[in-house]
Amino acid sequence: MFIEINKVKLKKLGTGMLAFALTFAVLASVKSYRSEHGYPAGDVAVSTENWGLSFQQEGSPPIGNATSQQLGEVNAFYCGNPEEKVLYLTFDAGFENGCTAQILDVLKEENVPAAFFLVGTYIKGNPELVRRMVDENHIVGNHTMNHPDMSAISDKDAFSDELTQVEEIYRDVTGKEMLKYYRPPQGKFSFDNLSQAKELGYTTVFWSLAYVDWYVDQQPTREEAFEKLIPRTHNGAIILLHSTSKTNTKILGELIQKWKSEGYEFKSVTDLKPLS
Fold first, then answer.
1. From CA 177, how far away is CA 171, in angstroms rounded?
2. Rounded CA gap, 233 and 213, in Å?
3. Residue 20 CB: number of other CB atoms within 10 A?
4. Where does the chain have alpha helices with state H?
5. Rounded distance, CA 22 to CA 158, Å?
6. Do 178 and 152 touch, CB atoms closer than 8 A?
7. How far apart are CA 77 and CA 212, in angstroms?
8. Residue 34: pLDDT band by 50, 70, 90 thresholds?
9. What is the separation, in whole angstroms, between the first and last Cα of the chain?
């Protein structure tokens, strides 16, 4: 899901070389986003397989595989306004691990809105939790029906089917229409399928802050989580956590309080606006 460089090699690099290496790792993973997509040949707009981030400076937004402006062309975001001290909290879930009810309890206690990007089978198998998310004013986003590599789907009907199946299950479970917010599984994307998502009325939501929390049997410690997340927090951060993580569940209240103490406000992804 993320671009990594060998840790042993990193220890041999100075600060400047480290920043260069991280930037190179991101750029090496992308391809030119060609003129048929509306960009001049000299632009750095890209089409890529994996969403990746390069953190250049603590407290500042990372460099993504594409800029906010380029993503805006296809109704996509990875970060909010860097001038606003606002955070957007999001969770991904492909299955239920017994944590979500407690996460919802913390969000309710702290009065924090969140977006839960769920696969179709999760919605179908956990209707009470999904209805609670909706009743407590959280966004239930579309994480596709089967969690495939969406960038590998070239057929428009097949691409659409991965999203519309989730919409139908959501409608059956909640009696409401799904708000159209989409997160590509594993962050795999191309600008072609982001355009397809836009045509279907979707806003695509990537992220600008995350850490390795998804291995159920290799959960990070509280200290490791804080060391990864707090220094990299920045204005407009779209935070990705996995609701299957027991560590996240245990520390969520403390994390939210820490962010609040640093002056951050939490808003819903529905408040994301294109940068002018």
1. 6
2. 16
3. 12
4. 7-11, 15-28, 68-72, 100-110, 120-125, 127-135, 156-174, 191-199, 222-229, 246-261
5. 35
6. no
7. 21
8. very low
9. 29
Pairing between β-strand 63-64 and β-strand 53-54 as defined by DSSP bridges: antiparallel
pLDDT tens across 219-250, in order? 999 999 999 999 999 999 999 999 999 999 99
Residue with tokens 């993973």: 29
- Alpha carbon separation from 149 to 92, 143, 144, 197, 276 (Å, rounded): 15, 11, 10, 14, 31
DSSP secondary structure code for residue 153 in this structure: -
Written as six digits, the tokens of 177 are: 């229409």
CA gap 132, 143 in Å, rounded = 18
Residue positions counted in the chain: 276
Residues 6+ apart with CB under 8 A from 261: none
Place of tokens 């991904």: 92
Confidence of residue 43 (pLDDT cuts 50, 70, 90): very low
Residues ≥6 apart with Cβ < 8 Å to 13: 21
Instruction: Give the CA radius of gyration of the chain.
Output: 18
Q: Give the residue numbers annotated as catalytic, written as ranges.
A: 92, 242
70-105 per-position pLDDT tens digit: 999 999 999 999 999 999 999 999 999 999 999 999
Non-local CB neighbours of 216 within 8 Å, separated by 6+ positions:
97, 244, 245, 246
pTM over 0.85: no
Instruction: Tokens for 266, please give them.
Output: 């939490």
For tokens 């750095």, name the residue.
Answer: 44
